Amino acid sequence: MEIRLKTPGRLLNPAGGFLADYTHTLNPYAGCAFGCSYCYVRRMPVGMFRSEPWGEWVDVKRIDREEFLREWRRIRKRGRVTVFMGSATDPYQPAEARYRATRVILETMAELPPDFLLLQTRSPLVLRDEDLLRRLGSRVRVSMTIETDLESVRRRFTPKAPPLAARWRAIRELLGAGIGVQIAVSPLLPHSDSFAVDLARAAPRIVVDDFFHGDGAGGKRTEALGIRRLYEQAGEGDQYRPETARKFYDLLRRHAEKCGSIALWSREGFLP
Predict the structure, then answer these.
(1) Which domains does the chain have, with CATH numbers?
(2) pLDDT of residue 32
(3) What is the pLDDT of residues 108-160, one digit of tens each?
C-alpha cells in the first residue's frame, strides 16, 4: 500500500449531480484501500491518472484542526449545511485507524454541528467514534454498505472489504447506542433468498441501488470496469441487468412494511 501525506487546500467541496441535495461533500482521504472491483471512482480522474492501481494507494489528508475549524465556521455562517462523507473514498478505511482524519473532522463538527451529515462506509471501525456520533444526535446518519449476504460473493467482488458479519454487528451496536443507521445495498450483488427479509429486520431504513443508477453514468463506468464478466464467469450473467435490483426492491419494500422499516430506491435513500 502506497500511503502519502497531503496538505489539502480545503476539505469541503460544493456538492452536485447525484448528491445535489447536499451542500457539500467531504473526503478525508483520496484513494481507498478497500479497492472494490465495481467502484465508480476507478473511472474518475482521481482513479485513472495514478500510476498505482486503484486500491493500492491512499493519500491521507493532513487535518489542521484550527484551519478546518475556520473553514467550517465560514461555511456554517452562510446558512444550512448538509455534508456527504465520503463521496469518493471510505472515511473508515484502514488508514483511519492510524491517521484519524475522520475522527478529527467529527470532533470539529461536534463543536458546531451541521444540519445533517451522512457517513457512508462499509467498515465497523465507525464504532470507534460512537461517542461523537451520539453528540451529533439526529444530525448524523451512518449508512453502512451491505451489498450481499453471501461471503463468497463479497470475496469475489470486494476481497479487501470488511467481512459481512462485522458489518451486521456494527449495525446492531450503532442502533443499540441510539445512533441513526441505514443499510445501503449499493450496489445490489448476487445474494440468498433470505437477504430481503433479513435486511428489513436489521435496520429501520434500507436503500437499494444498482450499477445502472448509482455509478453516475448510467452503468457505463461499471461496464468499462468489466463487472459483467465477473457475473458471467460465475454463471450469473442473467442478473446483470436493471430489472434485478428493481424486483429486489419491490420484494424488500413488502417485507419492510411488515417489519416497520422503510425501503428507499437509489438517490432518494441518500438524501439529507
Answers:
(1) 2-270 (3.80.30.30)
(2) 97
(3) 999 999 999 999 999 999 999 999 999 999 999 999 999 999 999 999 999 99
Q: What is the 3-state secondary structure (H, E, C) of the chain?
A: CEEEEECCCCCEEECCHHHCCCCEEECCEECCCCCCCCCHHHHCHHHHCCCCCCCCEEEEECCCHHHHHHHHHHHHHCCCCEEEECCCCCCCCCHHHHHCHHHHHHHHHHHCCCCEEEEEECCHHHHHHHHHHHHHHHHEEEEEECCCCCHHHHHHHCCCCCCHHHHHHHHHHHHHCCCCEEEEECCCCCCCCCHHHHHHHHCCEEEECCHHHHCCCCCHHHHHCCHHHHHHHCCCHHHCCHHHHHHHHHHHHHHHHHHCCEEEEHHHHHCC
214 pLDDT higher than 70: no
46 or 150, which is more confident = 150
Closest CA to 72 of 113, 41, 22: 113
